[in-house]
Amino acid sequence: MGKLKRKAYQALLEPMQLELTAMARWAQHTGQRVLVLFEGRDTAGKGGAIQAIAEHLNPRQCRVVALPKPTDRESTQWYFQRYVSHLPAAGEIVLMDRSWYNRAGVEHVMGYCTEAEYHAFLAQAPVFEKLLVDDGILLFKYWLTVDQVQQEKRFAERHVDPLKGWKLSPVDLKSRSKYTAYTEAREAMLRATHREEAPWTLVDFNDQKRGRLGLIRNLLDRLPDTGVEEPIPDLPPLKGKLHEEHFGVLKPINLSPHDPQVD
User: Fold this and answer.
1) Which residues does residue 82 pair with via DSSP β-bridges, in sequence order?
2) Is the pTM of this model over 0.85?
3) Which residues lie below 8 Å from residue 35, measured CB to CB, with a gap of 6+?
4) With contact defined as beta carbons under 8 Å apart, do 9 and 215 qualify?
5) Taking the alpha carbons of 116, 171, 174, 164 in that order, is the dihedral positive or negative?
6) How far apart are CA 86 and CA 125, in angstroms?
């Protein structure tokens, strides 16, 4: 199966983005809390999937959470503590670009946590998630899969593209030779944390466009009926002549002759 072309991708994506906006209205109307975790290997496409979901949603309602390395203080806290403050409140949608599962993945594989901390996490994560679900949070956990050949192509793109260079961290470079170790860590994580109340869903992201479409479709299909009628207010024409901008203190900058003319 060939890779999906952009035009075909957009034609399939746009109706689902409309469904996502309806879902957001439903969450706001009902006070529902939606939490989606995005996990997977480096370069799998977590950021692109999150962007496709959040693109047309109100950023005050839909929050993207991508936490940096823990501070010295956070490193002494209960492991889940730094994530709790980012959980959704009533009517909110939170998309986590990596989550507490860092401990089962990069921290374990790269030796950033002890074996005791790793095994404690595998035991505690299902308990923590059950508390969230029992409290009414709709929790969705996605793992984005990518073959090593495709992963290496994406690493190479990031290496030569200055616009993507920020995505290539020293940890990413160290992780390249540990593909098998990450597979073993993922399988151990799934055995310990794939539970009925908080199941995992794996999505093939070797073709990122197809992966995004499949993930979003799965998410929408698993949500309750999200239809909420919202009347569109009238937008009557204004009376009189429409005004042009006038400036007193400062004037706007002008495009130089070499700048592109944008409609």
Assistant:
1) none
2) yes
3) 87, 88, 93, 94, 96, 132, 137, 138, 139, 140
4) no
5) positive
6) 16
> Which backbone phi and psi does 139 adopt, to 5 degrees?
-105, 130
CA atoms of 232 and 210, how far apart (whole Å): 33
Q: Residue 54: how many CB atoms within 10 A of its CB?
A: 19
Please tell me the distance from the alpha carbon of residue 83 to that of residue 137, in angstroms, as a whole number.
Answer: 14
SS3 of residue 39 by DSSP: strand
Instruction: Name the strands in the sheet holding 93-97, side by side, starting at the edge strand that comes first in the sequence.
Output: 62-65, 93-97, 34-40, 138-145, 200-204
Q: Say if CB 143 and CB 38 are below 8 A apart.
A: no
Residue 87 is classified by DSSP as S
User: What is the C-alpha separation between 260 and 263, in angstroms, rounded?
Assistant: 10
The Cβ-side half-sphere exposure at 38, using a 13 Å CA radius, reads 27
pLDDT classification of 177: cutoffs 50, 70, 90:
confident
pLDDT at 1 over 80: no
